[in-house]
Amino acid sequence: MAMQNIGAANSDDAFYRYKMPRMITKIEGRGNGIKTNIVNMVDIAKALARPASYTTKYFGCELGAQSKFDEKNGVSLVNGAHNTAKLAELLEAFIKKYVQCYGCRNPETEVLISKNQTINLKCAACGFISDVSMTDKLATFILRNPPEQKKSSKDKKAMRRAEKERLKEGQAADEEQKKSKKDSKKKSNGSAKDASIKAGVPKKKGNSSDEDRPSPPQSLTDVNEEEGDDDVQWQTDTSNEAALRRIKEQLSDATAEMVMLSTKETDKKIKSGKVNREMNQTTDAIATLVNEIKSNLKKGATPQQLPSIIASFSPKRHDIFPALFAALFADVGKGLSKEIEKKKKYLIALVESEGSDSQILLLGAVESFCLKTGSDAVKEIALIVKAMYDGDVLEEEHIIQWYMNGLSGDNKNHLIWKNMKPLVEWLQNAESESEED
Predict the structure, then answer these.
(1) Fewer C-beta within 10 Å: the chain N or C terminus?
(2) What is the 3-state secondary structure (H, E, C) of 120-183?
């Protein structure tokens, strides 16, 4: 059976691991009774991890025709004669809406229905929870026919029951072991008495031996065995210096060093709480600025008005371009380079108003935006920068400077720089040729 990658965007990736069978259709019947049979719908649905009834119903909703999936025979029928190409196109739309993660576009998702009767897709790859639009007719069908829950919950319950049984058995074994120890002690004491009698050892009247003394009550014996010396009062120095000293005394040199390093890391984390709070404040400031920019753009703000609008909120300088980029392109997804061509005037206006290093700040905003958005944006980053270069937003010297800074930074091994390398080399060659001319 011929296989293809799940999702049209991954069709050229020879190493893509998520695959599904190519659709096979068959026209059946004549006249008013003509129908299209999707022969391998069960196999396709299994590859997508969705019930075949969902895909069949989706075809019927989109084509305005009656559709039916026979659970017993595994037959998927849609009224009317429909070619394979049209149905494959509809299947691709179904995959985008109800299979692929909206964050990373990975098809390994699970359908969840919330208490508010909304449909979500939980991604097993990135953990992102996508909110599915409830305007489609298929959404109502899914709410009425929810997917079967995985058996993992039952397995977990069975494991919990088995764990409880194991604990009970362990407790019973411990009790049995305690009883056996007590019985063996009694036997050993009795055998010692018999041996002393046979050997003719006289009993001392003043100081009786341990064997002659009555054994303490059973409860006291258990307490002494388990708790030890109750009369002793222990006091421990809990300061960091004392703790490190005890670590050195009790552990080997290598192990003590590891533990001390972990305590230092804990101290660093405590101190970094202040840093985290500052980062949260920065994130809130950017989010507020993004909302303000969006609202002004909806009101029809021009590129020339945008710098003064942003300046009225007195933002930090390094927050301006991340907020602008998010406000302009956060909802775009794929094809970001084409959108940049449409909205380049806003970028040019802000770059010109923010001074000499504004292009580096803009490129930094592009970098962080691609890192947050995911693999699609990272793959497209060279096209994004090229679009801004062609649109006179960026100059080659600033692009090359940003690239060289990235290669020497913390994320120097990230895929961004690998994808940017051909464009930077092209810019460097173009610059050297212009100098020669």
Answers:
(1) C
(2) EEEECCCCCEEECCCCCHHHHHHHHCCCCCCCHHHHHHHHHHHHHHHHHHHHHHHHHHHHHHHH
Dihedral angle over CA of 201, 206, 209, 213, nearest 10: 130
Residue 164 CA to residue 70 CA, distance in Å, equals: 43
Residue range 141-170, pLDDT digits in tens: 999 999 876 655 455 556 666 666 767 777
Q: Is there a contact between 90 and 58 (Cβ–Cβ < 8 Å)?
A: yes
Statement: the pTM of the whole predicted model exceeds 0.70: no
On whether the CB atoms of residues 420 and 381 are closer than 8 A, the answer is: yes
CA angle centred on 46, ends 42 and 50, rounded to 5°: 100
Other beta carbons within 10 angstroms of residue 71's beta carbon come to 9
Rounded CA-CA distance 54/139 in Å is 9
Region of residue 28 (phi > 0: left; psi between -120 and 50: alpha; otherwise: beta): beta
How is 303-328 classified by DSSP, letter by letter? TTTHHHHHHTT---HHHHHHHHHHHH
Please state, as a whole number, how many other Cβ atoms lie within 10 Å of the Cβ of residue 45.
Answer: 21
What CA–CA distance (Å, rounded) separates 312 from 303?
15
Which two structure tokens, joined as six digits, stand for 3?
Answer: 């296989």
State the CATH class of domain 3-107: alpha beta
Give all strands of the β-sheet with 129-131 in edge-to-edge order: 109-113, 119-123, 129-131
Reported as a single tens digit per residue, the pLDDT across 336-380 is 778 888 888 888 888 887 776 788 888 888 888 888 877 777 888
Domain boundaries, the chain: 3-107, 285-436
Phi-psi region of 208 (alpha: psi -120 to 50; beta: other; left: phi over 0): beta
Angstrom distance (rounded) from CA 374 to CA 100: 14
Contact by Cβ (8 Å): 315, 323: yes
CA-to-CA distance for 161 and 74, rounded, in angstroms?
Answer: 37
Specify which of 35-49, 134-148, 302-316 reaches the highest per-range mean pLDDT: 35-49
Domain 285-436 listed as CATH 1.10.468.10: no
